[in-house]
């Protein structure tokens, strides 16, 4: 259990670092874009909203930096992330809670698919080294060198403009009301096909390659040789002896590459105008909506940390050494 | 050196050459507007023209420099940072190692893209060099982690102990005994960082947080996207820049495989 506790402590420190960075950035960098925005909105801001923006962006110069920091934490713990300028006058927290499920659904499902698919292909490629599977590697390398968003653009141009098979944008058909009905769910799935395939295609190569290289290394280990000498079936050696050990770096790598994958997925959402956090962020950039951008950053960081903790639990289940410790 | 590595180096050299001479061999001024609007590739405009009649071939040629400069600057800066943090942590051990590892893990776990987008959009002028510096600050952590692990395995080797016993100073042992043995790892970390930096810069240009006054491949894609090139079927507007990115990325990845295979003979092809 100490393993999990240590990891949880580390994630708390990371969360603290991310929040503190969010606090410091607008105070350290030159220019006062939020003040400009408040002036522009003038009397349309009520005094509560004004006060929270002052706290979040440190516009109240009379207070010391420590007082500002305490106020900032107070606002965050109340769930107050300020008002969004883009979706004025909706609070940032409301915008985020509407778009978060879309991102969690799309990115969560595609990341798990890509991980399982890539790892499985890596197991076979590493086990049967020198077979035709090896020629897949340059192809997948090329695919993973393509930026996520560009692959998305190509997917739109081929599968929605040239051959209109799938919708090019949005999360569900216009005119439908989000509800728990067959029609709505069907529409959601149809809209998720292109963005989903884009994310899987561009992220699968990393898993294949990492797994293949570990399989190649593990296959040469003595315990695999012993397993062969015992006359165990190929399948059993491949999965229970080689793959189980080879997958460990992939899982600890999963945690670390998640931040990167999520970044790519945000871009895919931008390209497909998918109603998740990425598209919200994209709209925020255009309007210089700092409360919204910072809110997106915090929510994404939190989601990545939770996913990391889940990956750690998986690691714990696969590797008995971490359980015996402590 | 095998064929894959040579191919990678060849493509990289080609883009480096374009980065230097692109501005002189470009047939048109990339920002100059012309009469031929949104025309498909032809003899006069090899990659076609944009909505305002700009020549896309010239934009790709001129834009190569920005991409390569950011890649190189970030590669150097971030590799330096990763050596500084990773090798120090791995060699010193103890509390210094705990603190430095924690620092690099924090940087690894925090999603870089939204953070950089915030920083870049808050900067008053987001020009190429500034962006390169910001990207470097987030790009060093992976290299530091790998270098730390590698340094720890070298720390107790006999030749290092021998140097320590003969009274060499710590920095001298690190620079002359440890670093030469880390060269393969450093090189592959450098190439990896360049890939990361190039992708990130193009992404930032594409979402429109970087100054649009200088051309790079991402800026071309930004204009293509904001003018609905897709809906109008103007594939020539976004295909060339994207293919260049993918080619450059593949070339760098191939070079990295070469380095990996050099460092880890088990990965080399089995000879029949």
Automatic annotation (TrEMBL), chain A:
Gene3D superfamilies assigned? MetI-like (1.10.3720.10)
Chain segments annotated as transmembrane: 102-127, 148-168, 188-209, 246-272, 292-318
Q: Does the keyword Transcription regulation apply?
A: no
Q: Which Pfam families match?
A: BPD_transp_1
Primary location group: membrane
List UniProt keywords, sorted A-Z. Membrane, Transmembrane, Transmembrane helix, Transport
Q: How does it sit in the membrane?
A: Multi-pass membrane protein
Q: Which CDD domains match?
A: TM_PBP2
ABC transmembrane type-1 domain location is 100-311
Q: Can you say where in the cell this protein is located?
A: Cell membrane; Membrane
Name the family.
Belongs to the binding-protein-dependent transport system permease family.
Name under which the protein is recorded: ABC transporter permease
């Amino acid at each position: 259990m100490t393993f999990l506790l240590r990891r949880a402590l580390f994630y708390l420190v990371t969360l603290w670092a991310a929040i503190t960075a969010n606090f410091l950035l607008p105070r350290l960098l030159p220019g006062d874009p939020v003040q400009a925005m408040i002036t522009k909105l003038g009397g349309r801001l009520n005094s509560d909203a004004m006060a929270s923006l002052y706290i979040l962006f440190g516009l109240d110069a009379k207070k010391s930096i420590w007082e500002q920091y305490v106020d900032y934490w107070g606002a965050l713990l109340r769930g107050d992330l300020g008002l969004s300028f883009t979706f004025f006058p909706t609070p940032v927290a409301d915008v985020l809670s509407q778009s978060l499920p879309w991102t969690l659904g799309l990115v969560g499902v595609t990341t798990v698919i890509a991980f399982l698919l890539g790892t499985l292909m890596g197991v076979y490629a590493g086990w049967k080294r020198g077979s035709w599977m090896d020629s897949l590697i340059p192809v997948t390398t090329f695919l993973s060198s393509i930026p996520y968003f560009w692959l998305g653009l190509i997917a739109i141009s081929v599968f929605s403009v040239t051959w209109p098979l799938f919708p090019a944008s949005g999360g569900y058909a216009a005119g439908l009301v989000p509800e728990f009905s067959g029609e709505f769910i069907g529409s959601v799935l149809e809209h998720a096909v292109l963005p989903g395939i884009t994310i899987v295609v561009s992220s699968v190569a990393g898993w294949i390659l990492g797994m293949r290289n570990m399989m190649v290394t593990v296959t040469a280990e003595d315990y695999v040789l012993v397993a062969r000498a015992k006359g165990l079936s190929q399948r059993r050696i491949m999965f229970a002896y080689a793959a189980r050990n080879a997958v460990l770096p992939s899982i600890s790598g999963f945690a670390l590459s998640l931040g990167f994958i999520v970044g790519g997925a945000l871009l895919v959402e931008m390209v497909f105008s998918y109603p998740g956090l990425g598209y919200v962020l994209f709209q925020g950039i255009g309007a210089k909506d700092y409360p919204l951008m910072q809110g997106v950053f915090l929510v994404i960081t939190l989601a990545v940390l939770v996913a990391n903790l889940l990956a750690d639990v998986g690691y714990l289940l696969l590797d008995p050494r971490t359980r015996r410790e402590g | 050196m095998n064929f894959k590595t040579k191919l990678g180096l060849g493509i990289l050299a080609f883009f480096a050459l374009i980065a230097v001479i692109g501005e002189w061999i470009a047939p048109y001024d990339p920002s100059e507007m012309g009469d031929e609007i949104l025309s498909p590739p032809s003899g006069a405009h090899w990659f076609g023209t944009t909505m305002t009649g700009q020549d896309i071939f010239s934009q790709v040629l001129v834009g190569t420099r920005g991409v390569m400069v950011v890649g190189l600057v970030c590669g150097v800066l971030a590799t330096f940072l990763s050596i500084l943090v990773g090798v120090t942590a791995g060699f010193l051990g103890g509390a210094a190692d705990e603190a430095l590892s924690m620092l690099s893990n924090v940087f690894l776990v925090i999603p870089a893209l939204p953070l950089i987008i915030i920083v870049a959009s808050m900067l008053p002028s987001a020009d190429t060099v500034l962006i390169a510096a910001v990207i470097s600050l987030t790009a060093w952590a992976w290299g530091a982690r790998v270098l730390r692990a590698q340094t720890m395995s070298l720390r107790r080797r006999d030749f290092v102990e021998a140097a320590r016993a003969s009274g060499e100073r710590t920095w001298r042992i690190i620079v002359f005994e440890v670093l030469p043995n880390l060269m393969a790892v450093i090189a592959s970390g450098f190439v990896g960082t360049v890939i990361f930096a190039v992708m990130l810069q193009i992404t930032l240009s594409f979402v429109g947080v970087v100054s649009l006054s200088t051309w790079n491949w991402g800026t071309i894609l930004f204009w293509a996207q904001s003018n609905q090139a897709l809906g109008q079927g103007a594939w020539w507007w976004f295909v060339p820049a994207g293919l260049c990115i993918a080619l450059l990325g593949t070339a760098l990845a191939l070079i990295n495989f070469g380095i990996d295979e050099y460092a880890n003979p088990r990965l080399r092809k089995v000879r029949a």
